[in-house]
């Protein structure tokens, strides 16, 4: 109840007041970075490790990759500081923020949290922990412009790491600090799909977090394309949704729209890594008609599982969407003025995806994958 009240008060506050509050907290609890800090010592990776969100999964992949490279990695859980729900069970014990505060020696801290959660994490970790360490922000962002809260956060970092050139190019416009592309080290799954629509039915999948921008993820466009591309009985569509309650009215409207289309189901269960891998393998096409992605983690996972990928051909996912099974969807760029949320006051470009183009691609794949005389596995 306390967290809900805090979120409500935060959202109801004017943006200028939020920025002032975060600036005051950071001045007290963190430290502005005017020169490179000492970095001898271990690598502390801070993330919401008890959350199922995409940014949390990115933190887990980061830890795994660094360890594979032989680095001394200490994961620090900041789930509560970021005000994220605890809907994931980590496979290892983690340092708490209280534990970390006792580690005042050198090292490097990589914080997987976008502003304003980034500032909340800084404040929770405190000056004593941060003082002798290099601070790196790992940020994923989906627009070419940034809120003032992001620009304020840059004062407290030595460098920034990002998952794609799309994010890098956007950030380099507002800072002269190093911005390095470090893509998510998505592991190659044990199994990869090699047979498609063996019973004559095409199965499509889209995974998204309703707690992210519902409009940006654009699941209604995927639903529309599916409904118009296939006749009843030709195909099925699965939407795997996390944080289903976060979208409130938008998600309720989406559920009603899905209920009106035969062959569509929504999964809201929390899935572990094995169950998620099985979900990918049970489908043939990954359909993402997003308006913009900082990276597009589930698109990459679908590719590695061997699914055909039909996804918007713009933004962060274009760093890796080169594959025989990939079908980029045409689009047109439009300017949007954001009137609410973290982006309030920003005007930035994103995509109006060509749903008609997506339908043509889906019809082509249906013909290809259900033609038993043709070999389709790659």
CATH superfamily of the largest domain: Glycogen Phosphorylase B
Helical proportion?
A: 25-40%
Outline: globular
Instruction: Work out the radius of gyration.
Output: 21 Å
Number of strands: 14
- Could you tell me the CATH topology label of the largest domain: Rossmann fold
For the biggest sheet, the summary is: 6 strands, parallel
Q: Ranges with pLDDT <50 over ≥5 residues?
A: none
If you average the pLDDT, what whole number results?
89
CATH architecture of the largest domain: 3-Layer(aba) Sandwich
Order of SSEs, N→C? HHEHEHEHHEHEHEEHHEHEHEHEEEEH
- Cα end-to-end separation: 51 Å
CATH level-1 class of the largest domain:
Alpha Beta
Taken together, the total number of domains comes to 2
> Main sheet: which strands, in order across?
2-1-3-4-5-6
Q: Look at the helices and sheets and give the structural class.
A: alpha/beta
Please work out how many helical segments DSSP would assign.
14
Oligomeric state of the chains in view: single chain
Percentage beta strand: 15-25%
Structural account:
With 378 residues, the chain is α/β, with parallel strands linked by helices. The protein folds into two domains: 19-181, Rossmann fold, CATH 3.40.50.11930; 202-369, 3-Layer(aba) Sandwich (Rossmann fold), CATH 3.40.50. It has helices at residues 2-12, 15-29, 54-68, 97-100, 117-125, 127-130, 148-153, 165-171, 214-217, 219-229, 249-259, 273-281, 297-304, 355-369; strands at 43-47, 73-77, 107-112, 133-138, 159-162, 179-181, 202-209, 235-242, 264-267, 285-288, 308-312, 326-329, 331-337, 347-353. It has a six-stranded parallel beta sheet. Strands 9-8-7-10-11-12 form a six-stranded parallel beta sheet, with helices on both faces. The protein has a two-stranded antiparallel sheet with strand order 13-14. Strand 8 (235-242), helix 11 (249-259) and strand 9 form a beta-alpha-beta unit. Helix 2 (15-29) runs parallel beside helix 5 (117-125) and helix 10 packs across helix 14 (355-369).
